[in-house]
Specification:
The termini are close together. 65% of the residues lie in helices and 0% in strands. The chain is an all-alpha fold and 89 residues long. The relative contact order is 0.14. The longest helix has 40 residues, at 48-87. It has two helices and no strands.
Amino acid sequence: MSDAPEVNRPVVTPVRVVIAACLVAPFVAMLWVGSYAKIDPTFIGIPFFYWYQMLWVLISTALTMIAYKLWQRDQRARKAEQAHGGAGQ
C-alpha cells in the first residue's frame, strides 16, 4: 500500500455544471410566469401562454437528453480513470 494521497477528480466539474444548467433551465423558465403570462404574440391562433409552454416541453426533452448523454460520458471517463489509476498501483 502506498503512502501517496489518492487523487480524485473534483465532484464539481464544468461538464456537471452544464448538466445542472440543462436540468434547471426548464424549471426557471416555467416558474417565471410573468415572462409568458400574455396572449400576444399568437401562433396559428394559439395564445403565447400556451404555445410557450408546449415549446418548453420539446426544449426540456432535448435538454434532458443532452444532460443524460453528458452524464453517461462523464461516468465512463471516471470509470476509465479509476481503472487506469488502479492498474498502476
